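QA checklist item 7 of 12: single-chain prediction sanity check.
[x] sequence parsed
[x] length recorded as 324
[x] structure emitted
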Amino acid sequence: MIERAVRYEEKFMTEVYRNKKRYFILFFLAGGFIIYTVFLVAPIVHSMFYSLFGGPGIVPKEFVGFQNYIQLFTQNPYNERFFNAFKNTAIFFLIVTFFQNFIGFFIAVMVTRRFAGSTFFRRISFLPTTLSVIVAGFLFTLILNPVWGIFDKFLEAIGLDFLVRPWLGTPSIALVVIAIVTSWQFLGTSIIFYTAGIDSIENEILEAARIDGAGPLAEIRYIIFPSVLPVIGIVTILIFIGDFTQFDIVYAMSSPYANPQYGTDLFGSLFYRAAFFPIGRGGWGMGMGATVATLIVFIVTIGVLILMFVFRMQSVGRNKEGIE
């Protein structure tokens, strides 16, 4: 009888402990859920709601249904500006993805090698990422200035004055220049991911490869690169989200009007003009701006799901090959 009472008490106390632990976890999750809902979900839902309205003012009051979406895809200048921004954003994403993955990987390989100053280079590689985007954009605007910019002066000093041009004033290269600046600033994030992936490789594997006569290139090709392939997916998805919502670098380097001739217009700058500029000076009204924002959210969501599926399938394929 006493043993049964003791077992019952132990069971009761265990259940109480589990309930307390469950409530403790829910308490901390609730804070994150509330913040996520208030600052992300609610604005998205609000934007979707406003996209069904039109008219002047900060709060559009005339219900127009899906007319804003129809105009955005069929009427000029809405469709011209939207598809131009989509094209520019896609090009911007491809350039940044190439630089951050390619250069980030090889810098990570370099800084994970043990040599004098490797720790210093590992730390300093993240320094540009700590800068504000506005500061970085303004800094490179000064460097690339066609009158007093140091970059053109350097080209002239080494006899490459035939390359001198208005880097931010030429439609064919301005977007590429801004993409390179973005790649430079956020390269440190990619380096951190790749460095973590390389550091996770067991030293015994690398040492065994070296004993078998594998050189640095073979080591990178057959051991390091396959080991960090999942990192490519993570970095690419983060770049995709960042680039398809990018605004501040365009604002800093080419103004909200995305000069020259909308050659640097991204989704972020298009939304900013459409929603917050006066109608007739580049603005389309808050309703149309909300429509652009809603489509950006939709494109980013679909794009992320596609990228996750692609990289997931590649991972499954590699695992099957490893088993076979």
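[x] summary fact logged: The two ends are 59 Å apart (CA to CA).
[ ] second reviewer sign-off
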